């Protein structure tokens, strides 16, 4: 019997600035794969399908006091509120709605802008 290769799930330390994260995603993702990033108050998943469409999903806790502010900023970027499940609201952006062939540039812009919003709205934590 042949074993299926297991996905490579590992913790990777990357600098916290949005440009470094965007660079990390670009070097890590291949068609048909995804990258998931976890932040203190959010999760982000970036998926590149085999046809070249990019999908970015952001999950925000409903307990986040800045939820309405974050939601408004994400909607201005073109994300839409997709669903809510177990205390998490998911926002979605996909290049499939653009109808363009080369969407990598647009996906990188949206990813960088969304990361900047998350970073700008995260309070500094000196004691954990």
Chain-wise SSE layout:
Layout: H1 18-28, E1 33-38, E2 42-48, E3 54-61, H2 67-77, E4 80-85, E5 88-94, H3 104-120
Antiparallel strand pairs: 1-2, 2-3, 3-5, 4-5
How does this model look, in words?
- The longest helix has 17 residues, at 104-120.
- Strands 1-2-3-5-4 form a 5-stranded antiparallel β-sheet, with helices on one face.
- The model is unreliable at 124-128 (pLDDT under 50).
- It is globular and about 35 Å long.
- It is of the alpha+beta class.
- α2 (67-77) packs antiparallel against α3.
- The protein contains 3 helices and 5 strands.
- β2 (42-48) and β3 (54-61) form a beta hairpin.
- The chain starts with 17 loop residues before the first helix and ends in an 8-residue tail after the last helix.
Can you tag this structure with a few keywords?
128 residues; alpha+beta; five-stranded antiparallel beta sheet; 30% helix; 27% strand; globular
- Compute the number of strand runs: 5
Secondary-structure element string: HEEEHEEH
| Beta-strand content bin | 25-35%
Mean pLDDT: 78
Strand arrangement, major sheet: 1-2-3-5-4
Using the alpha-carbon principal axes, give the shape.
Answer: globular
List the total number of helices: 3
Derived from helix and strand composition plus strand pairing, the structural class reads alpha+beta
Cα(first) to Cα(last) distance is: 48 Å
Largest sheet: 5 strands, antiparallel
Q: Determine Rg (CA atoms, Å).
A: 15 Å
Helix content: 25-40%
| Low-confidence spans | 124-128
């Amino acid at each position: 019997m042949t074993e299926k290769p297991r996905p490579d799930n590992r913790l990777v330390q990357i600098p916290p600035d949005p440009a470094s994260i965007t660079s990390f995603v670009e070097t890590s993702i291949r068609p048909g794969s995804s990258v998931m990033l976890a932040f203190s108050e959010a999760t982000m998943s970036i998926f590149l399908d085999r046809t070249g469409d990019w999908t970015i999903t952001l999950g925000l806790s409903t307990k986040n006091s800045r939820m309405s502010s974050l939601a408004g900023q994400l909607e201005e970027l073109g994300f839409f509120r997709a669903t809510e499940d177990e205390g998490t609201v998911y926002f979605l952006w996909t290049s499939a709605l653009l109808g363009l062939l080369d969407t990598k540039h647009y996906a990188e812009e949206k990813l960088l802008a969304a990361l900047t919003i998350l970073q700008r709205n995260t309070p500094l934590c000196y004691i954990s």
